[in-house]
Amino acid sequence: MKLYGFWRSLASLRVRIALNLKGLKFEETPIDLLKGQQFADTYKALNPQSVVPALILDDGGPPLFQSLAILEYLDETHPQPPLLPKDARGRARVRALALISAADGHPLVVPRIRNFLEKELHVDEAGRNRWLQHWTLKALEAYESHLAGERETGRFCHGDAPTIADICLAGQVFGGKFFNCDLSGVPTVNRIFAECMKIEAFDRAQPLKQPGAPSQVSH
């Protein structure tokens, strides 16, 4: 498999984690979002939306895109270890938890949003950083409310094995670290994140361990 991603992309992180959990070999081609490589004609031919990730399967065909769709494809085609519960209610909960990040929190802080704030709305750096911290932390606080108060929470977001929810939560926490959010108010999130990072598949996928990543992250 060939993954088009970027070290800093939290959506690419989700796919890397899932591929690692499934034990699938892949080659990652970096698309530098900060340099605008996603807008090159060669990449737009793969993903007209000009975002990462995109995943090319070994048997060819059109690329898979959108991280959660890729995760569910991988789970359906390589069912072990499972990333969704067996019961319908459990699957609904896990998908809903995943969407707190993938649909609500993360889309508000991606490069195209930051660029629009700066170039079109002329928001200064301090204002932009407040925006990034606010929406990143709001998503983490939403996770905390659910995870701390619901009996389905276990060692991980749902029970005692990682699911798609944990993959998305891990990405949101990395976003919180990128933007220097105060994470002291989300202890359940921190506990589950720590459990995730004990797993080699999560640890190996983390942003600063990817080729081209700097030693530290700036906003």
Q: Largest sheet at a glance? A: 4 strands, mixed
Give the neighbour order of strands across the main sheet: 2-1-3-4
What's the average pLDDT?
Answer: 96
Number of domains: 2
Strand content: 5-15%
C-alpha geometry: globular
Distance between the termini: 31 Å
The number of distinct β-strands equals 4
Q: From N to C, what is the helix and strand string?
A: EHEHEEHHHHHHH
Rg of Cα set: 17 Å
Q: Give me the number of helical elements.
A: 9
Uncertain runs are none
Structural class: mainly alpha
CATH class call of the largest domain: Mainly Alpha
CATH topology of the largest domain: Glutathione S-transferase Yfyf (Class Pi), Chain A, domain 2
Architecture of the largest domain, according to CATH?
Up-down Bundle
Helix content: 40-55%
